[in-house]
Specification:
By secondary structure, the chain is of the alpha/beta class. 65% of the residues lie in helices and 10% in strands. A hairpin with a 2-residue loop joins strand 4 and strand 5 (403-404). The radius of gyration is 36 Å and the shape is elongated. The chain starts with a helix and ends with a helix.
Length: 585
């Protein structure tokens, strides 16, 4: 994607603030006009002063022009303030809108995107790259137009005074253009490389902080420090290469400007001595030359900011171009009086490395409790992930009350489902806030009831702050069983029509499991429930038990029927009974 194609992303944001931008640029024009008027007044003042010395106009004439000069400076200051506040403020507003849209887009993206993208990389683009885009839209755009207009106004007046001197002042322009083109390309390429390295560092830090327990358990602190040090060293080395380009640009501009000043002073001085140019005109000309110093120097900084901004915008656009694989149809079917009947019709799922599910036909009556068991990797979690449309089947269809899931709005569908995934995730918030995460509003009594059903209320009462106890990042302050029970309470509080428990009791002991199942029995009544577990004790009371093997249903029936069939389920039940007997000895 070219730079101009990348900049198209910003058009809608700039259009949104078009009137503010117009006011900002109006202030910029008035400020630059006032700035260009100052040297003209200075010429009149100096010429007036020369006249006083020679016995011409009196001092009142001189003081009047001094007052004009002060008034013009105040006029310039007011509009310079307005220019900065409005344009820089709009860049902040665009940053705010772009960050919100980026976050909204990230939430809409399907889980498969996060399976192939590092969290640290996304964080780097949502922070460091967005800041670079803001700097491009604010200071870079403002100074680009300001210095450009200053240059045009100054050169127009200088040409009207003495076109020969003006052309001498323009002498470094071709060299400046060449330097800008060469350095701009180098800055763009190197900044893209730097931002990619920053993403690597962010990802490494994020992974190390999330897995700090594992690092300590395997005594890998020094090894991780060495890896981080290497990434950091490469990052600094690339930044130093970029700094070298910046370091060359400004001194080169100053040398060119200094030589130009020397030539203009030499030629202009001769014209004053020869009487072809007044002292006031000569001072005015040099004042304009001084005004051109900042545009020349600022040019390098503006080019730097523009190249950084476009490089960062290209990285943000990579995320914005990603399309979610799960999206709502143009005219979704409305869910009315949901009963909860689910039907898998010839469902197959293939991740690319081979089939995970193969032609699964599974009717689940409304209000029934279905359990799914099988070897690790047989497709159990994939099966239940299809129900809330966390993914779509490669072939076949899934119907809810006779409606194909792809005809429903995923958001409406998921509001009807309470899902406890295999990997429990808790936020850095209070226990109460984690339990109430899936609902808009929840009373303290409702949260407490959900915790009691999940068998968590007793543990919470033992915490110093009770339900207001802060949970560390990813629930690190809670045990595995407490995290699972918090997730169960979160699902129960939603009062869903369909409840999915994906191995949700694997981290609790047998006694706690039995107590939770007893409490859940009343909550599960009338709901469609899908249980996944490796424990026979968890699934034995289900209305129907389904056994998966290599993505296919090989057995199904009640607990008693499957025991009599002497298949995988019967062997699993026998092994677990022996384990319990051995533990009891």
């Amino acid at each position: 994607m070219t730079m101009w194609e990348s900049l198209r992303t910003l058009r809608k944001y700039l259009w949104r603030y078009r009137w503010g931008m117009a006011m900002g640029f109006a202030c910029l024009i008035l400020k630059d006009v006032a700035l260009a008027g100052q040297p003209l007044l200075i010429r009149r003042v100096i010429d007036a002063l020369t006249g006083i010395v020679r016995g011409g106009p009196n001092s009142h004439f001189f003081l009047r022009y001094v007052a004009y000069l002060v008034g013009l400076a105040l006029f310039k200051a007011v509009f310079q303030y307005g220019m900065r506040v409005i344009i820089i403020g709009i860049s902040r507003d665009v940053e705010y809108d772009l960050r919100n849209d980026l976050f909204r887009h990230l939430i809409d993206l399907s889980p498969d995107y996060y399976g192939r993208t590092r969290t640290g990389d996304i964080m780097a683009r949502a922070t460091n790259d967005l800041n670079a885009v803001r700097m491009m839209l604010g200071p870079a755009v403002m100074y680009c137009f300001e210095t450009g207009l200053t240059f045009v106004l100054a050169m127009a007046i200088m040409l009207s005074v003495d076109w020969r001197l003006a052309l001498l002042a323009l002498a470094p322009a071709p060299v400046v253009s060449l330097v800008v083109i060469v350095s701009g390309r180098a800055i763009h390429t190197r900044f893209q490389r730097i931002q990619a390295m920053f993403s690597d560092i962010s990802s490494r830090v994020q992974e190390n902080l999330s897995g700090v327990r594992m690092i300590r358990a395997f005594a890998q602190e020094r090894a991780e420090m060495r890896r981080f040090e290497e990434l950091n060293r490469n990052y600094i080395a690339q930044n130093l290469k970029l700094v070298r380009i910046d370091a060359v640009f400004e001194p080169l501009m100053e040398i060119l400007i200094g030589l130009t000043f020397l030539v203009v002073l030499w030629v202009g001085g001769h014209q004053v001595l020869e009487g072809r140019l007044s002292i006031g005109g000569f001072v005015m000309f040099n004042t304009f030359m001084g005004m051109l110093v900042w545009p020349m120097i600022a040019l390098g900084w503006v080019v730097n900011l523009m190249q950084r901004g476009t490089a960062s915008l290209a990285r943000i656009n990579q995320i914005l171009r990603e399309t979610p694989t799960i999206r709502a149809p143009e005219r979704p079917t409305a869910l009315k009086e949901l009963r909860g009947r689910i039907e898998f019709q010839g469902v197959s799922v293939d991740y690319g490395s081979g089939p995970v599910l193969s032609e699964v036909d599974l009717p689940i009556p409304a209000g029934a409790t279905i359990a799914v068991v099988g070897h690790t990797g047989c497709g159990k979690s994939t099966l239940v992930s299809l129900i809330p449309r966390l993914m779509d089947p490669t072939a076949g269809a899934i119907a809810l009350d006779g409606i194909d899931l792809r005809d429903l709005d995923p958001a409406d569908l998921r509001r009807q489902i309470g899902f406890v995934p295999q990997e429990t995730f808790l936020f850095s918030a209070t226990i109460a806030e984690n339990i109430a995460f899936g609902v808009d509003r929840a009373t303290a009594e409702e949260i407490r009831h959900a915790a009691e059903v999940a068998g968590l209320a007793g543990d919470i009462e033992g915490f110093p702050a009770g339900y207001e106890t802060m949970v560390g990042e990813r629930g690190i302050t809670l045990s595995g069983g407490q995290k699972q029970r918090t997730a169960i309470a979160r699902a129960i509080l939603r009062n869903p029509r369909i409840l999915i428990l994906d191995d949700a009791l694997s981290s609790v002991d047998t006694l706690t499991e039995e107590r939770i199942l007893t409490h859940l029995a009343a909550e599960m009544h009338g709901r469609t429930v899908i249980l996944i577990s490796h424990r026979v004790s968890t699934v034995r009371h289900a209305d129907r038990i389904v056994v998966l093997e290599k993505g296919r249903i090989v057995e199904q029936g009640t607990h008693a029927e499957l025991i009599e069939s002497r298949g995988y389920y019967a062997e699993l039940s026998q092994k677990q009974m022996l384990e319990e007997e051995l533990e009891a000895i």
